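Q: Hi! First time doing this. I have a protein sequence and I read that you can turn it into a structure. Is that right? Here it is:
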Amino acid sequence: MGCTSWTHENGAAAPAADAGRRLSRLAGGAGSLIARLWRGYWDWRVKRTTVLLLHSLDRRTLRDIGIDRSEIESVVCDAGRDRRRRHDASRPWPGGGA
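A: Yes, that's right. Below is the predicted 3D structure, encoded as structure tokens:
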């Protein structure tokens, strides 16, 4: 028998070759799962670091960038959502203003 692959009488691939393809698909699926988990881990680390950094800022700095201390987690975790606020001119800023 030579180096060529053999087929069954009906033209189907050899069982070993078929098993190799299944193993290759399985390994590819495991690799993509590991990549997704790794990416998810680093996304979580970035969010956690951002929350810690924002919590380290004082109230005035947070107000300057437009968030309240109670909003930090929601701003970081829901970054893709639209966060428009309705402006209420009759409500003064805490600690000063009209």
